[in-house]
């Protein structure tokens, strides 16, 4: 009973986690779609980063729960039923993992493209800065520092872009960690499938052995019954001979 309660508790948590991961992935897909648009704000990036971190935690926990479910033993028939249910839950988990992996790759591609574009903008700004420095006087005839204003604006643009690059590269590193962790979970699931098959083979082998042993026992019993019947027949024949001799 205790093992059954422990199994159901783990099962409920793993099932709920798979559901939550699926919802999180759908939200991540929507947020990644905002990259490069007017909705691509710092607040949106913070929300996306938290959502990815939460999803990674759920993935790690669910992977452990699936492993632990394999260690809780039930009866032979119960183990078979659990095996079927476990395979279904694991398949659902693998499906949401693939979706998370795909959206992570898409996010990484967009982040790399964004960083490359910002770097190109910064390079262009530096070239413009160099041209302005070489071609225009520092102070105009009217006393207005046009050159200084332009150079200051370009410096601000370069500084802002550099901050964006740092931010996006941190996002990219976070995404790449997510991809690496998902790959590790997939490897663990592969090992888990092998363990499940081994366990199922053992269960079937035990069932077959029980059937063979029962058949062997039945054969031995039938043989013993035949020997007993033969012995009784011989004993009766011996009594008959004795009776004939005596009388």
How would you summarize this macromolecular structure in one to three sentences?
By secondary structure, the protein is mainly alpha-helical. It contains 4 helices and no strands.
Molecular structure report:
With 247 residues, the protein is mostly helical. Helix content is 90%, strand content 0%. The protein has helices at 2-32, 42-71, 76-135, 146-246. The longest helix is centred in the C-terminal third of the chain and has 101 residues, at 146-246. It starts with a helix and ends with a helix.
- SSE order in H/E notation? HHHH
Q: Tell me the major beta sheet.
A: none
Sheet-strand content, in percent, reads under 5%
> Which descriptor suits the 3D outline?
rod-shaped
The structure class reads mainly alpha
- Rg measurement, Å: 38 Å
What percentage of residues falls in helices of 4 or more residues? Answer: over 70%
**How many DSSP helices?**
4
Mean pLDDT: 75
Stretches where pLDDT is under 50 for at least 5 consecutive residues are none
Q: For the terminal residues, how far apart are their CA atoms? A: 71 Å
Total strand segments: 0
